[in-house]
Amino acid sequence: MLSRNWKTFAVVGLVVLGALLPVLIRNPYFLSVIMISYTWAIAVYGMNVLLGYTGQLSLAQAGFFGIGAYTVGVLTVTYEMSFWISLVAAVVLSSAVGFVVGLFALRTRNEYFAIFTLGVGIVIFLVIEKWESVTGGRLGLIGVPYPEPLTELSHLYYLIFAFLLLTIYVVASISRSLVGRGFVAIRNSEDLARATGINVGTNKQLAFVISTGLAGLAGALYAPNIGFLGPAIANVPITFNMLLYLLVGGLGSLSGPLVGALLVATLQQFLQQFQEYQLVIFGPILVILIIFFPSGLAGLWHRIGNRLASRRAGSHTEESEGEEEPTKMTPTKETR
Amino acid sequence: MSLFFQQLINGISLGSVYGLVALGLTLVFGVLRIPNFSHGALYMVGAYVTYFSLTSFGLPYIVAIAISAVVLAGMGVVLERLVFHPLRDMPHTHAMIGSIGVLLFLTSGAQLLFGADFRRLKSPLEGSISLFGIGINQQRLLVIVTSLVVMAGLYLFLKKTVPGQTIEAIEQDRVGASLVGIDANRVSMMTFAISAALAAVAASLVAPINLISPTMGDVVNLKAFAIIILGGMGSVPGAIIGGFALALAETFGSTYVSSDFGELVGFLFLVVVLAIRPSGLFSKGV
C-alpha cells in the first residue's frame, strides 16, 4: 500500500478539491447531483458500519433515512421550526427508533435479521405513506426551506460536505478503535467474538444505532437539498440502491461508501431517462460484484496497490493499513 | 352472513396462492439456507410466460400454466448455477445480496420488455356458480382446487419418492446426506426448479383475478416471508398453514377493519412474531 505520508497528502488533496468544487463547477445541476450523492454516501456509511464491519444486513436503512427526512420536513414546513433544531431532532429520533427496533431486531440472527428489518422498513414506509395528516401521504411535503442563514446552493453544499467529512472522520475513528475491531470480530465469527470476551449484543446494538443515526442525518440533509419529500424515499428500493453503492465502492472499506455513492448515484442521475431500465444493468452488476469482487472498487485498488508495492520491493510485501483492508470474510486473527 | 362466506372463499383462494408461493420459498431456504429475495420476481415472470402463451400462441389455459411451470423450472436451475452455487460457501449476507441483484434485474427487465402497465389475463372460467346461496367465482374455485392438487402432489413427491426424500435429507443434514451418496448440487438445482415452478403456477392462477405487472411479485414476496417465518423457515406444512392463516387475516381484516389494516397486518404480524420469538414460530431450532 501507499506510504502514510503519501496517504495524508491524498486525503488533504481530496478535501481541498471537495471544498473548491462549488467554485470549479458553475453548473448548479451538476453541483446538486454531487450534493445528493454526498447525502446518500452518509447513509451508506451507516450501512457500512453495520454490514461491512459488523456483518449484519439491515434492509430498513431507507426507512430510517425517511424518518430523518420527514422529521426535518414536518418540523420545518408544518411547524416552521428552525432547520438546526429539526436536524438534531431528526438524528435523535432516527437513533432512538433505531435503538428500540434494535432491541428486538438484534435478538434475531442472520437471515431472520434481514427479513425482520425488511418488515420494519416496510412498516416505516407504510406509516409514512398512510399517515396523511402529518406526512401528507402520497402527495408528500412540498417546500422544505433552506437552513436559516444559508441562501445559496453552494452554502448548502458546504453544509452537506461538512457533515460528510464529519461522518467519515467518525466512522474512521470507530473502525480504528477497539469498538471497531470488536465489530469486525463479530462479523468474522459471532461465537468466536463472544468467546474472546466481546459483548456481542451491546456491540451489535451500538453498530445498529450508529447506522440508523447516520441514515437519519442523511435524510435530514436530503430534505432541504431537494425541497420535496415523497414516501418513496423511505421504501425498500432505496435500501437496495444504497446496497448497490456500498457494494460498488467496497464493503467494509472506509472509502467505499463515498466512491460508490459518487460513482453510481451520479451515473443514475445522468441516466435518469432510463430510470426504469437502469436496474437491468445494475442488478447483474450487484450479482457479479458479490460473487467476484465483494470488496468492490476499494478492494480492487488495494489489490493493485499491493501488486505495485510488491513489484517495487521484490518479494517483500508490505503490511497493509488497518482501515483500508478489503473485507476478508474468512475468520482472521484479531489483535486485541 | 353471505358476506362472511364470500370473504371466506376469497380468503381460502388467496391463501392457497400464498401457500404455493411460500412453499417454494421455504424449500429453497430449507435446502440452501438462503432467503431468496428474488422469489417474487420469479412469480411475476411466471405470470408473464402464461400470459404470452395464452395471447401469442393461443394455448389452452392449463397448458399455458404447465409451460410456464417448465420454463420457470429451467430459470430456477440457471439461477442456482449462475448465482447461488458460486455464493454457497460465502457469508450468508452475500447470497442475500445476490438474490436482491436478481430481483432488481428481473423486475426492471420485465419493465423494459413488457412495459409498466397492467395487463389482464383472461381466464376461460369467467362465470360463477351458486353454492349455498352465495355466488362463487369459478376462477377462485379453480385456484383452490389446482393449488390443493399441486400441494398434495408435492407432498407425495417429498415423502414417497427417492428424489423427494433426498431434498429432505439435505435439509436435515447436508454433510450426512453427502456421505451417503446424495449429490447436494443436484438437489439444490432440483429444489430451485420446483420452487420457481410453484411460483409460476401460483402467479398464473391468481393472474385472472388480480392484474399482471412487473411489480406484482414485490408484495407477494414479502408476504411469503411473513408466512414462512410464521410457519417455521424450511417447514412444508408450516408454509401451507401459514399461507391460509395470513390470507384469512388479511381478507377479514380489510373487510371488517379497514383496507389499510389488511395491507399492514402481514408485516405487523411478521415484526411482532420475530420480536417475541426471534427464530420464528414452530422453528426447528436451527
Q: Would you kindly provide a written description of the structure presented here, covering whatever features stand out?
A:
The complex is a heterodimer of chains A (336) and B (286). Chain A has a two-stranded antiparallel ribbon with strand order 1-2. The longest helix of chain A has 27 residues, at 200-226. In chain A, helix 1 (4-24) runs antiparallel to helix 7 (153-176) and helix 11 packs across helix 12 (256-270). Chain A contains 14 helices and 2 strands. Chain A is mostly helical and 336 residues long. Chain B is mainly α and 286 residues long. Helices cover 74% and strands 3% of the residues of chain B. In chain B, strands 1-2 form a two-stranded antiparallel sheet. In chain B, strand 1 and strand 2 (134-137) form a beta hairpin. In chain B, helix 2 (39-55) packs parallel to helix 4 (92-114) and helix 9 crosses helix 11 (259-276). The longest helix of chain B has 31 residues, at 2-32. The N and C termini of chain B lie far apart (44 Å). The model of chain B has no long low-confidence stretch (mean pLDDT 85). The interface between A and B is large, with 41 and 46 residues.
